[in-house]
Design a protein that fits this description.
357 residues; alpha+beta; conserved putative lor/sdh protein from methanococcus maripaludis s2 fold; Helix Hairpins
Length: 357
């Protein structure tokens, strides 16, 4: 009997606690139920966003690439003939002018040969004139005169050949430039394969770079651009003067070459450059911040703010800058484009504008 009384008391206590719990939590549950259909639904629909009002603007198709500075002209200097170097007339690292004598090979045997031939020149010339005078008097045959004339022409040709050989013993600057470090010393036996020094023309300089293939039909000769070099933040101006004839099928790039006026001599060939190039400029066009665009299944769209709701519209994109994207179709001036919270927006969703630019 005592056992049944004990379990009865336990059951009464449990039942009492359950009733107290239901009374305690029931008001809170009722409040949540009342809040769900109205307050909660409204809270899930309304989204605070920022937007911009569209107006025509100017946008440029600008991109950045790297390139290298190369000389306008550059050549490894060498003699056209072989022989011992008897004189070096240039100082390393200095400017030379076109035609300056830079080095000399021993030409004593050639000079002796030239002196001998020139000594015979007067004799052969006089002989031809005598034969011509006699021919006019019919004192000699035409063949005798032609033989004297041929002998003189042959002698003159031999003189020209020796003089040409003497010129080959002289190393002269083919253009204005800076001559580098010499690779030989006086007394060296040089041949046409022996490099004496390197001559570099540094004004103007050329800027070599490659652009993505999509710009192959856009860039033109005469296009200006700016570039910078490491250690110098001043922008420098250059102008495109030559375009390659084809796109590189391995890299899918298009090679371009420009000229830079290096009259101050501050830049040297071989340096790396960072190039900012504008290919096209569009005036009176529409552009939206890049974060406003959503791409789904190959379709680009933006959300417009209309009567407190988000309305999606499909667009057609144009050029892109660091922060803006040109829009060719889908929107008009005066439209309000939502720029934040775009990934959370749904068609017809109510939005609250925090700010409009």
């Amino acid at each position: 009997m005592n056992k049944f009384i004990k379990w009865g008391i336990v059951a009464i206590i449990v039942a009492g606690l359950a009733v107290m719990g239901i009374r305690t939590f029931t008001p809170k549950v009722n409040e949540e139920i009342k809040k769900t259909p109205e307050a909660k639904a409204k809270q899930s629909r309304d989204l605070n966003v920022k937007a911009v009002v569209l107006s025509p603007t100017t946008i440029s198709d600008e991109f950045f690439v790297s390139g290298s500075i190369i000389p306008d002209e550059e050549v490894d200097l060498s003699f056209e003939t072989s022989g011992k170097i008897i004189d070096i007339f240039f100082k390393e690292g200095t400017r030379v002018s076109k035609g300056d004598l830079l080095a000399k090979i021993n030409d004593a045997p050639l000079q002796a040969e030239l002196k001998k031939l020139k000594a015979q020149l007067k004799l052969y010339t006089d002989r031809m004139y005598r034969q011509n005078a006699l021919l006019e008097k019919e004192a000699v045959s035409q063949e005798a005169f032609q033989e004297a004339e041929t002998n003189l022409a042959t002698l003159q040709a031999e003189i020209d050949k020796v003089e040409a050989n003497i010129e080959q013993t002289e190393l002269r600057a083919p253009f204005d430039g800076i001559i580098g470090l010499r690779q030989v010393s006086q007394g060296t036996y040089a041949s046409p394969t022996t490099t004496i020094a390197r001559l570099t023309k540094t004004n103007p300089l050329k800027v070599d770079f490659a652009v993505p293939e999509r710009y192959a039909g856009t860039l033109k000769s005469g296009t200006n651009f700016t570039f910078t070099v490491e250690g110098d933040l001043d922008e420098k101006k250059a102008k495109i003067y030559a375009l390659d004839s084809h796109v590189n099928s391995d890299t899918r790039t298009f090679s371009v070459r420009a000229l830079y006026d290096n009259s101050d001599g501050r830049l040297y060939p071989g340096r790396y450059v960072s190039i900012a190039l504008t290919t096209q400029t569009f005036e009176e066009t529409l552009a939206v911040p890049s974060q406003a665009i959503i791409s789904e299944m190959g379709i680009d769209k933006v959300f417009l703010y209309k009567s407190g709701k988000a309305v999606p519209v499909e667009i057609k994109k144009g050029v892109r800058t660091e922060s803006l994207v040109q829009v060719l179709e889908g929107i008009t001036p005066g439209d309000t484009v939502i720029t934040t919270g775009t990934m959370q927006l749904r068609t017809g969703q109510k939005v609250i504008l925090d700010s409009v630019n």
